[in-house]
Amino acid sequence: MAPRKKTNRRAFLRGAATASLGAMAARGATAQAPDPLITDPQPWAQGLGDGVDVTPYGLPIRFEDDVVRRNVPWLTADTISSINFTPIHALDGTITPQGCAFERHHSGAIELSKQDYRLMLNGLVDRPLVFTYADLERFPRENHVYFCECAANSGMEWAGAQLNGAQFTHGMIHNMEYTGVPLRLLLEEAGYDTAGKWVYVEGADASSNGRSIPMDKALDDVLVAFKANGEALRKEHGYPVRLVVPGWEGNLWVKWLRRIEVTDAPVESREETSKYTDTLADGTSRKWTWEMDAKSVITAPSPQSPVPHGAGPLVITGLAWSGRGAITRVDVSTDGGASWQTARLAQPGTPMALTRFYLDVQWDGAEMLLQSRAMDDTGYVQPTKTQLRDVRGLNSIYHNNGIQTWWLHKDGSVENVEVS
Q1: Number of folded domains that form the chain
Q2: In angstroms, rounded to a whole number, what is the distance separating the alpha carbons of residues 317 and 1?
Q3: Would you call 78 helix, strand, or coil by DSSP?
């Protein structure tokens, strides 16, 4: 990797100040003009604020009320079996607050109390068992940060640029710290038969959303989780217990988990035959494409996060992830892929978790075609959409990890486009 060019902080700030003074001059103001927000007493400094317990469970301040999940009304006939999107354009860092982490339901979010919760483990086991919530709490638990991405994330972009916002093109994803019991411990408690090569998992909701998972994965890193970001799961995320299947498509992360059956073969349920398979150009479909390949997106500037200032210092930032390992590098292009610069990772990438990247540039006010390209520790490089379509065609819904392009206009607005 080429050494990163160091930025002189004084020069950077001097450039920012010059740009600010230039903007003031353009408005007919002077550098000496008093700012009443500094010189005049303000209401918030002349009285008392709220006391403790005004909001027993803390909520975002009203000035941030636009940072919310959103759905696309025309996407589904009803919101009961639908999806909404994480406002990734308005977040920073990597951890997604539960309150704005995307939802995907097949028959609506149900209410199931801890007292009424039961988890059955049956099939090819020595001792079929039923666990209560209290039983699960007695097993050794682990904490891990993982991303959960719907296989259909970016699916509407297969045929071309469709939705004008990172929230809508890439927002079927969240990244949270999960607390739970390794599925391996529950299988060992029941004495699973080594002839059992698969587990079949299903939820307590009306759809059940049953999926088959290879035993190797079940014994590796799958969690039976009951906390996220340190608190109880939200109803829409499977309270009180859900499955966490690191790096694999979100449809496998069964919510309101009620049953785990050890089997000698996959069940071939609806969710792994007619759905969540990848239809190719010749009409055949690929099955068992569980892993989410390396992917990235610039979250700002983006259509919902335009540039509010003119030329000068600009922070380009986004997210990268891989279901096969850890992100090792992200490149950013400002000219539609003609040239690339290596971005700065906020932290070293960790397996199956989001990585935040930044590129600090001096914007000259000209148009830019912004792209990002992720690489993981397996050597995989995120493909262009053309490369992806050459292999997959245009019939797919799932697993679109092609490079996204944003067109930054001179006025600071941003548009979803494709570069051919």
Answers
A1: 2
A2: 20
A3: coil
Cβ 122 vs Cβ 107: under 8 Å = no
pLDDT confidence of residue 32: 82
| pLDDT the model gives residue 396 | 87
Pair 190, 196: CB distance under 8 Å: no
Find all residues with CB under 8 Å of 399, minimum gap 6, and list them: 151, 249, 278, 289, 292, 293
The per-residue pLDDT for 30 is: 53
Beta strands of 221-336 (E only): which ranges?
Answer: 223-228, 231-232, 242-244, 257-263, 278-279, 285-286, 295-300, 312-321, 327-333
pTM value is 0.92
The secondary element (H helix, E strand) that includes residue 374 is: strand 368-376
Q: Is 53 a domain residue?
A: no
Share of the chain above pLDDT 70, in %: 92
Q: Could you tell me the CATH number of the domain that includes residue 108?
A: 3.90.420.10
Same domain flag for 306 and 233: no
| 259, 373: one domain | no
| Amino acid identity for residue 154 in this structure | S
pLDDT of res. 119: 98
In this structure, what token pair is assigned to residue 109?
């979010």
Residues 369 and 342: their CA atoms lie apart, in Å, by 16
Give residue 140's domain range.
70-285
For tokens 């450039």, what's the residue?
Answer: 15
Is 105 in the same domain as 146?
yes
403 & 302 share domain: yes
Per-residue model confidence (pLDDT) at position 14? 53
Which residues does the chain have with pLDDT short of 70?
1-31, 420
Residues 224 and 326 in one domain: no
Residues 223, 181: contact at Cβ < 8 Å? yes
Distance CA 271, CA 81 (A): 14
> The domain spanning residue 330 has which CATH number?
2.60.40.650
Q: Is residue 81 part of a domain?
A: yes
Q: What is the pLDDT of residues 161-220, one digit of tens each?
A: 999 999 999 999 999 999 999 999 999 999 999 999 999 999 999 999 999 999 999 999
Euclidean distance between CA atoms 207 and 271, whole angstroms: 10
Whether 102 and 207 map to the same domain: the answer is: yes
One-character DSSP codes across 378-403: T--BPPPHHHHHHHHTT---S---PP
- Whether 326 is in a domain gets the answer yes
Q: Is residue 315 part of a domain?
A: yes
